[in-house]
């Protein structure tokens, strides 16, 4: 059969051709009245393919830096978005509430706020809450009421296996049951800032230059619809996860039904939402190592699997047989943020662009090279990850004072050992992952905006 | 009173100018329609005996024969149709249950024809299957809920990375490995000829898929195809022993068949000749009557026992599935079957074929396969057990488009029976139960069975599988998908046309024109 006998070379050639497709997520929706308190019901009827510019930076030593850097980076890719959605996810921004749940919530009106707070009161102790401070920007119109809460769950018996399950259940309940209220982020020591507008304007609106975090991701959307719903912007977040995504998942229906079998309700019907749930299911609930996740989400082709040594073949075959419905098919590039790592992945035949670079402790991931060059003129190493090849930036744990005393080692040595270990695991996990290619010296002097 | 009230359904037109009196038609017709009068050197045809199989028309070397449906055999009546009248005449003559063959020909809604498939445009590039990999490999069997790995972080760097540090802890249950999501449905040796069985087995084996023995046991000549055989255990248990079970790659317990839900089978004693008697392990000349229920399965827990008994008998080395016909409560029934331990569930729809079934049951009992798959997939997912078993859809899959739609509605793979027979020459005259199949398919008469050369049959089946597989790849690529897994239950890629809200809701699809 012709389709089966074509060579690897031809396939690779095609890949290069496919890279020319740079646009993503276009779709049409009617105009929506932002004040319609029925927004979620309205949106849940539609799937909103996500847009087109993604950029993320992580400092693996957990050094915090200002949001100005990502704002500068994403602004270079102005052409990749159309002003109908932009957003940021930031980790490490709330050190004062490091171990408490931080909720960012959009309200359409005070009624929604009251209802949500009534729901919060019985289950949570509210440590602190405030309206998120914003700046007046002429290009940002009609924002909803945006609040943040720092919460501790009260002990309400053992209805949930873990605290995460309790939070997830609460978030899903508010987002699907309370009209005009939408929890956009629900992690610890992290927050998502997003809205309708170009990403750089959204950044200024939220005054992100005043925040400091060790991991930032950002997104600029290019939908062809003219919706005015802030909740529809990216990043999409759940618990500590945040996902920014460029592309359209052709396997959306399959993935959605797969996660729904594990009690994840897709309320927004967006690709990004389903990716987030897949990650939560695989990594948090099913304890699949992050280093193996790409073998599920962008699994190797059968013809490649069949050529592998028996042991690896068995593992990949098992993964594919079991998690076939979790394969993300169609063009995508994603950056996933979490408190301990930044993770980026392309679809397996690379139908969307993705560039990565390292400079000292910094790892940059972007849709294009330009934003990286904008914030870091000469990275130590810059590469274009292959389709299905993940890029992982692992944020090292801060050693507690007690541990330092016990080991008598300074922090950096300890951490390097850990990193080496991780590289080994990755090398063993079938496909090499360039976690730490050419780390170079630790001098980040060329990195701007720090 | 006339001797025979039933009127002939067909009219045979013979062009005297073209007919060369070669008598091909006489020799080809097992129903003795044509007769040669040597005194007058003329051929006569008896319309009343014709079954409309078109064998004579196809083989007539000069094209002198035309078989036409008789449209005007009765006064036009939309209520009392010719088929009702003829059936009553037949029954008034015989006093028996009216038999028929193949799937229902009634105008029930064919949902496949009301479903349209999607393609990628702009936001999502389509993929060219001639240049890009397009994966349609499919696995049938039980899946564990999750996979666990043992990750040994190698502390000593000198040991190098030779040994992979990731080890699979979870053991995956046995799976059927299909190169295309199409298998050959159960057709027993007895209902079809050995040449048909040989063709199916050889084609399945060469293409990398599976055929099903049906309930008639396994002929020794087919033992070589064990790797591609699904052996069936039906209520009659014909030919079932441990050897038989181990000559298959999987075992299927047959509870029901789409064409005759709740009904057993009957192979008349005169058909139970030497070979069939051996294969079925019953005395020559006795009627082979499969009971309506399995007499050891009166409830779901009994089914669970049989499933585990078969797993024990085959040393837990093969998937064990259950075939049921699509009836009104198919969703909870399927759920029960999955919970009873089945590794796959075969669902046979209303329009599924048969070698012999009471016509009234074939045409009036059960539900269409499209609705059955959609509701079973939905129910199993709601209950969080969909991953445990594969679903195989059967019952009138007529084209690669039907395959695509079945998978997008939630099936893992499909069975084809009628389509395979048509590829080997069947013309759907629906007289399989008479044993006089002129195409050499549903008959045991050696004069007729030799008309089907198993090598040619195999080639035709391989061509069919190849053609459909290529078409499936084309459609997948068009939709921007390069693996069949990503189509499974992907109802976002389907739209209904000319369907009402209730039908759309059950199918779980939007109407054409509705966007995301």
Q: How would you portray this structure in words?
A:
The complex is a heterodimer of chains A (450) and B (516). By secondary structure, chain A is of the alpha+beta class. Chain A has a single domain (15-428), classed as Aminohydrolase, N-terminal nucleophile (Ntn) domain (Glutamine Phosphoribosylpyrophosphate, subunit 1, domain 1, 4-Layer Sandwich), CATH 3.60.20. Chain A has helices at 2-5, 8-18, 39-44, 68-75, 110-123, 163-177, 199-205, 252-260, 271-285, 294-297, 302-306, 310-323, 370-375, 401-407, 411-428; strands spanning 53-59, 65-66, 86-91, 101-107, 124-131, 145-153, 181-188, 190-195, 212-213, 215-220, 236-238, 241-247, 332-337, 341-346, 355-359, 362-366, 381-383, 391-394. In chain A, the strands form 4 sheets. In chain A, strands 8-3-10-1-16-15-17 form a 7-stranded antiparallel sheet, with helices on one face. In chain A, strands 11-12-13-14-18 form a 5-stranded antiparallel sheet, covered by helices on one side. In chain A, helix 4 packs antiparallel against helix 7 and helix 8 (252-260) crosses helix 9 (271-285). The longest helix of chain A is centred in the C-terminal third of the chain and has 18 residues, at 411-428. Residues 1-50, 407-420 and 422-450 of chain A have low confidence and may be disordered. By secondary structure, chain B is of the alpha/beta class. Chain B has 2 domains: 10-73, Alpha-Beta Plaits; 176-511, TIM Barrel (Alpha-Beta Barrel), CATH 3.20.20.70. Chain B has helices at residues 24-28, 55-59, 82-94, 194-207, 242-246, 274-280, 300-313, 330-339, 359-364, 369-382, 400-409, 418-423, 446-449, 454-478, 501-507, and strands at 10-14, 34-37, 42-45, 65-69, 99-100, 115-117, 138-140, 149-151, 166-168, 176-178, 182-184, 211-212, 229-233, 250-254, 265-267, 288-290, 320-325, 344-348, 357-358, 390-394, 413-416, 494-496, 510-511. In chain B, the strands form 8 sheets. In chain B, strands 11-21-20-18-17-14-13-12 form an 8-stranded parallel sheet. A 3-stranded mixed sheet of chain B has the order 6-22-23, covered by helices on one side. Chain B is globular and about 95 Å long. Residues 155-164 of chain B have low confidence and may be disordered. At the A-B interface, helix 2, helix 8, helix 12 and helix 15 of A face helix 14 of B.
């Amino acid at each position: 059969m012709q389709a089966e006998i074509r060579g690897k070379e031809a396939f690779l050639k095609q890949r290069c051709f496919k890279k020319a497709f740079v646009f993503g997520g276009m779709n049409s929706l009617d105009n929506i009245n932002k004040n319609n308190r029925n927004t979620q019901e309205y949106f849940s009827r539609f799937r909103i393919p996500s847009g087109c510019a993604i950029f993320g930076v992580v400092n693996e030593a957990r050094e915090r830096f200002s949001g100005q850097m990502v704002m500068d980076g994403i602004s270079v890719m102005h052409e990749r978005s159309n002003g109908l959605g932009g957003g940021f996810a930031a980790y490490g921004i709330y050190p004062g509430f490091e171990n408490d749940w931080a909720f960012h919530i959009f309200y359409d009106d005070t009624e929604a706020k009251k209802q949500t707070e009534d729901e919060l009161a019985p289950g949570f102790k509210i440590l602190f809450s405030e309206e998120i401070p914003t700046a007046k920007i002429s290009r940002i119109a009609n924002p909803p009421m945006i609040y943040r809460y720092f919460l501790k769950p009260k002990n309400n018996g053992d209805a949930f296996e873990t605290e995460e399950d309790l939070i997830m259940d609460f978030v899903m309940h508010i987002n699907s049951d309370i009209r005009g209220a939408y929890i956009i982020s629900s992690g610890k020591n992290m927050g998502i800032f997003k809205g309708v507008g170009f990403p750089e304007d959204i950044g200024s609106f939220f005054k992100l230059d005043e925040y400091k975090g060790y991991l930032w991701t950002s997104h600029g959307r290019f939908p062809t619809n003219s919706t005015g719903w802030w909740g529809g912007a990216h990043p999409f977040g759940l618990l500590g996860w945040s996902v920014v995504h460029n592309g359209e998942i052709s396997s959306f229906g399959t993935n959605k039904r797969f996660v729904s079998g594990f009690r994840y309700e897709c309320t927004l019907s967006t690709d990004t939402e389903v990716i987030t749930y897949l990650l939560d299911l695989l990594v948090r609930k099913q304890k699949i190592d992050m280093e193996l996740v790409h073998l599920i989400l962008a699994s190797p082709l059968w013809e490649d699997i069949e050529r592998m040594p028996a042991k690896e073949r068995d593992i990949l075959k098992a993964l594919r047989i079991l998690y076939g419905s979790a394969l993300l098919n169609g063009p995508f590039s994603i950056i996933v943020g979490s408190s301990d790592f930044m993770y980026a992945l392309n679809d397996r035949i690379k139908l969307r662009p993705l560039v990565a670079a390292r400079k000292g402790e910094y790892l940059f991931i972007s849709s294009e090279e330009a934003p990286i060059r904008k914030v870091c003129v000469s990275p130590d190493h810059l590469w274009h990850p292959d389709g299905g090849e993940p890029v992982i930036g692992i944020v090292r744990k801060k050693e507690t004072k007690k541990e330092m005393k016990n080991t008598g080692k300074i922090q950096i040595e300890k951490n390097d050992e850990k990193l080496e270990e991780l590289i080994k695991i990755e090398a063993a996990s079938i496909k090499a992952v360039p976690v730490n290619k050419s780390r170079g010296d630790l001098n980040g002097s060329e990195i701007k905006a720090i | 009173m006339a001797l025979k009230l039933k009127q002939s359904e067909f009219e045979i037109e013979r062009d005297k100018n073209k007919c060369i009196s070669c008598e091909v038609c006489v020799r080809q017709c097992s129903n003795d329609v044509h007769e040669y009068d040597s005194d007058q050197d003329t051929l006569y045809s008896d319309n009343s005996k014709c079954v409309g199989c078109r064998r004579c028309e196809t083989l007539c070397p000069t094209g002198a024969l035309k078989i036409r449906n008789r449209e005007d055999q009765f006064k036009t009546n939309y209520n009392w149709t010719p088929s009702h009248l003829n059936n009553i005449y037949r029954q008034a003559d015989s006093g028996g249950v009216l038999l028929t063959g193949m799937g229902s020909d009634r105008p029930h809604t064919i949902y496949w024809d009301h479903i349209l498939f999607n393609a990628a445009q702009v936001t999502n590039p389509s993929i060219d299957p001639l240049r890009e990999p397009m994966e349609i490999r499919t696995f049938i069997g039980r899946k564990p809920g999750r996979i666990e790995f043992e990750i040994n972080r190698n502390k000593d760097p000198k040991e190098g990375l030779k040994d992979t540090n990731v080890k699979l802890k979870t053991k995956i249950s046995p799976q059927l490995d299909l190169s295309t999501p199409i298998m050959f449905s159960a057709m027993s040796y007895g209902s079809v000829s050995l040449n048909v069985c040989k063709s199916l087995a050889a084609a399945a084996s060469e293409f990398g898929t599976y055929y099903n023995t049906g309930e008639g046991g396994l002929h020794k000549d087919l033992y070589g195809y064990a790797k591609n055989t699904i052996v069936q255990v039906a209520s009659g248990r014909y030919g079932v022993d441990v050897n038989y079970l181990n000559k298959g790659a999987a075992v299927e317990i047959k509870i029901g068949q789409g064409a005759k839900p709740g009904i057993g089978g009957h192979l008349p004693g005169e058909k139970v000749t030497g070979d069939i008697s051996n294969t079925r392990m019953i005395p020559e000349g006795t009627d082979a009557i499969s009971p309506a229920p399995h007499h050891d399965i009166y409830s779901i827990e009994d089914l669970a026992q049989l499933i585990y008994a078969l797993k024990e008998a085959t040393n837990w080395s093969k998937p064990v599935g259950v075939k049921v016909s699509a009836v009104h409560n198919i969703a909870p029934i399927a759920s029960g079957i999955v919970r009873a331990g089945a590794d796959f569930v075969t669902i046979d729809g209303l329009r599924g074929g048969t070698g012999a079934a009471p016509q009234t049951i074939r045409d009036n009992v059960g539900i269409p396969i499209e609705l059955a798959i959609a509701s079973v997939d939905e129910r199993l997912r709601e209950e969080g057990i969909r991953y445990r078993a594969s679903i195989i859809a059967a019952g009138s899959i007529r084209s690669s488009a039907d395959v695509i739609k079945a998978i997008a509605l939630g099936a893992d793979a499909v069975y084809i029976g009628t389509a395979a027979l048509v590829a080997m020459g069947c013309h759907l005259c629906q007289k399989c139960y008479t044993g006089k199949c002129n195409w050499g398919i549903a008959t045991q008469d050696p004069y007729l069975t030799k008309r089907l050369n198993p090598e040619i049959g195999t080639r035709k089946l391989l061509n069919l599988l190849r053609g459909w597989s290529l078409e499936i790849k084309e459609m997948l690529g068009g939709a921007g998908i390069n693996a069949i897994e990503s189509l499974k239950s992907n109802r976002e890629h389907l739209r209904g046309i000319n369907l009402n809200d209730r039908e759309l809701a059950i199918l779980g699809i939007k109407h054409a024109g509705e966007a995301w």
